[in-house]
Amino acid sequence: MKSELKAKLARTFPKIKTIQSGRLFTRQLSRLVDATLISLYDSLHAKLSLEDHLCLVPIGGYGRSELAPYSDIDLLYLHDGKLSNQTLSTVISEINNYLYNNGKEVGHTCRTIQESFDYLDNIQSYHAILDSRFLCGSLPLFLRYQKDFLAKIPKKRLEEYNRWKLDYLEDRIIDSYTPLLLSEPNIKSDALGLRDVHFMYWIERTSEYHLELDHGVFDFFLRGDTLPILNAYDFLLLVRSALHILSDRKNDRLDLNSQAEVAELLGFGSSKELYSIEKLMSVFYRCQKEIYFYLGTYIESKRNNTPLGVTNAFANPDTLYDDIISFFLEAQVSNAKPSRILLNDIRFASNFIDDDFKNSKTVIDSFLTLLQKKSRIGKILTLMHECNILGKLLPEFGACTNFPLFSYHHEYTVDEHTLLILRELDVLIANEWDDPQVQEVFNQCEKIHILALAILVHDAGKVKEGDHSQYGAELAMGIAERFRLSEEDTELFRFLVAEHIIMSELSSKRDIHDPALIQNFAKMFPDVNTLRLLYILTIIDTKSVGKGVLTNWKKEILYLLYQSTMTAFLKMKNPIEEIDRIEQTLESYLSEKEGLEEKIVSAIVKYATDVEPQTYLSFNTPRRIFQHYVQLKEWNHSKEPFRFFFESEPAFVTITIFCHDESKFLLFLCGAISSLGLNLVGMRLYRTSVSDLILQAQITDQFGSGTIAPEQMQRIESQMLLFINGQDDVEEIAQKTAIWDKAIRIPAGMVEELVKISNDLSQSYSVLEIRVPDSIGLVYRILKSLLDFQLKIIFIRISTSADFAYDSFHIQTHDGKKIENSELILSIKEKILEVAQMKQNKGIFEISF
């Protein structure tokens, strides 16, 4: 009998697996306690004749009907002063002891209506009574309590507490410098936890007090566009309840040890699978961000006394991209705090941004301008990320959103850690770093915008298993192509991402006083600026891992490593050529990261250096080169006509093909991609020393997204086999698509057609630029035409705006030279115009020497 309530609650706990609603689950627990206390009170009333002198008033979380499994039960014993102390003591003792015997902690207070005014100086007590609801006993007494106390709390006190809450929330959340998404969050009390929602709720409770007998947080957030915060709050209640059940006690810290079990209990997958934790925490962080955005707009509306709502400032689809990027550029220049309501509008508009946003030249140019201004870069990029814009422009970074780091020294998610590094960069740019040594080095740095790009991508590789630095470098190469960075900036970008942990590793694991180590390390750098930037990246990256990680000792050994390396570099008489540095990096990776024997390392390095053109070494990371070597060996021992494999990236899918017949496979791949309604956005061709072809292509779906199902990729391979076996005609298949597409048409004359051959952009190849109306199979027809002229294809970049193709082809003659014969150039022009279905002499034809 004494454990009846405990047993009822225990029988309810397993229901959390199926209910999947924190609100419903905690309300059911509250009702179980309600029913028990009502029954207990009735039995006491029968013995003690309490009449209308006493009532039980749940307060706090129990008053909101949000009782977590092991939360305290807070009760107000409200009386009218006419019961004896002995009677009150008997009632309180009976009820509290019953709850204690059932494993519940009790927080109670016994007051009259008048005495309640004496406790308003304590803000915690004040908040608790705002959650008062009637349970049992004298209803008239409770109604007087509402009328004579709750409705008569001094207005000055209400305004004082509400101002404090708004100031507290703004300082703690909106103006926070440190990240808010933690790897081990306290669900209740940490930033963007349950308590922050309660603060808004308590402000609303005093703004328009309701007299309903049953109420809670949800009743006060059912106005306007509030569904996201309701869902977020509901999920946090659910996770907190699950954590209580698994801990078998009151516990609100969702630490690394408990996340796996919570994930399994709530249906995210097996506790043994890391992916289950990733899914749980991703949803958890997404909910916190919903709270963050609602809270920001709520505070602004309260400050300005304006209603919550949208302004339609970003409602025009024709100017949406320009409007959004211009907003952030203006915010950077004005140095003012942007409107949270406008930021919320941008966040809403982000749902309607297409995948071509990341390829928009206007957007990319504006973004690079933002990085080059060297002013509040981290702050503005943080705002862009909060509005879901940064991930749209850089899906490589967007893939890290809410991605947890399963490490006891990493306090933040990948995206929050990255943005904190960028805000540390802001401090350096403002010349306000607290260490003069670090500030002095930074003040000598150039190309800060490339450093900012490298920071954005440096940990993006952590979303995949394996060496995140190598994968991050591959992502950097894709971004560099899309942003059309120069070769010099591309190499700097790639280097900073690929090597961003090396200084930290050397300083903590190796003897940095060893002259040979310093000498070899110095050989990695092409110039002093790269060394300076890598040192700065290492410092601010380490500091942003968590509080106290960048100790004075760590700073000193990093500075010693930097100084020693700089001295060694400046003493080098013959700086190492770029190709030699890349070879050295490849050797180090193969021996140290892959643990290969020297003989195998030498064979792989020879294979890579023999591949033509030599850009193979700079475009492909050591990880991918090793992958190619293994796959090539396997393919050469097989009887397969070609080897096909792919890797999914955030912005595109990379296809790699090994084959023998260059022209045939180029056309087969292009035809297969076209027939499935997919877009070829880039292609590179390399040749091994034994004339095997390595074909690397980047493709997207019809909307420009890198999300392509594995089944689609398998269909590409199957279609190529049909071409090889003569079962399908590539000429016919390439000119049609299985995807219905009604393209947007640009009015005639708005875009001028162009065919341009430039010989001044490279020492080794010509660049053919084409701007013509797009059509199904266009790339296939252009490729076939170029191959008919027996030209070598080095690199292809494809982009489309509405119904116009903006394509460039890096090409050579069959003997590896530039195309300088005027008759050949004219023939190429005529053929391109023909296959583009344009009339002769329409458009512009240019030749640059």
From TrEMBL:
<dbReference type="InterPro" id="IPR043519">
    <property type="entry name" value="NT_sf"/>
</dbReference>
<keyword id="KW-0511">Multifunctional enzyme</keyword>
<dbReference type="GO" id="GO:0006808">
    <property type="term" value="P:regulation of nitrogen utilization"/>
</dbReference>
<comment type="function">
    <text>Modifies, by uridylylation and deuridylylation, the PII regulatory proteins (GlnB and homologs), in response to the nitrogen status of the cell that GlnD senses through the glutamine level. Under low glutamine levels, catalyzes the conversion of the PII proteins and UTP to PII-UMP and PPi, while under higher glutamine levels, GlnD hydrolyzes PII-UMP to PII and UMP (deuridylylation). Thus, controls uridylylation state and activity of the PII proteins, and plays an important role in the regulation of nitrogen metabolism.</text>
</comment>
<dbReference type="GO" id="GO:0008081">
    <property type="term" value="F:phosphoric diester hydrolase activity"/>
</dbReference>
<dbReference type="InterPro" id="IPR002912">
    <property type="entry name" value="ACT_dom"/>
</dbReference>
<feature type="region of interest" description="Uridylyltransferase">
    <location>
        <begin position="1"/>
        <end position="306"/>
    </location>
</feature>
<keyword id="KW-0378">Hydrolase</keyword>
<keyword id="KW-0548">Nucleotidyltransferase</keyword>
<dbReference type="InterPro" id="IPR006674">
    <property type="entry name" value="HD_domain"/>
</dbReference>
<keyword id="KW-0808">Transferase</keyword>
<keyword id="KW-0460">Magnesium</keyword>
<feature type="coiled-coil region">
    <location>
        <begin position="579"/>
        <end position="606"/>
    </location>
</feature>
<keyword id="KW-0175">Coiled coil</keyword>
<dbReference type="InterPro" id="IPR013546">
    <property type="entry name" value="PII_UdlTrfase/GS_AdlTrfase"/>
</dbReference>
<comment type="similarity">
    <text>Belongs to the GlnD family.</text>
</comment>
<dbReference type="Pfam" id="PF08335">
    <property type="entry name" value="GlnD_UR_UTase"/>
</dbReference>
<dbReference type="GO" id="GO:0008773">
    <property type="term" value="F:[protein-PII] uridylyltransferase activity"/>
</dbReference>
<dbReference type="Pfam" id="PF24931">
    <property type="entry name" value="ACT_ACR9_3rd"/>
</dbReference>
<protein>
    <recommendedName>
        <fullName>Bifunctional uridylyltransferase/uridylyl-removing enzyme</fullName>
        <ecNumber>2.7.7.59</ecNumber>
        <ecNumber>3.1.4.-</ecNumber>
    </recommendedName>
</protein>
<dbReference type="InterPro" id="IPR045865">
    <property type="entry name" value="ACT-like_dom_sf"/>
</dbReference>
<dbReference type="Pfam" id="PF01966">
    <property type="entry name" value="HD"/>
</dbReference>
<dbReference type="InterPro" id="IPR010043">
    <property type="entry name" value="UTase/UR"/>
</dbReference>
<feature type="domain" description="ACT">
    <location>
        <begin position="767"/>
        <end position="846"/>
    </location>
</feature>
<feature type="domain" description="HD">
    <location>
        <begin position="414"/>
        <end position="527"/>
    </location>
</feature>
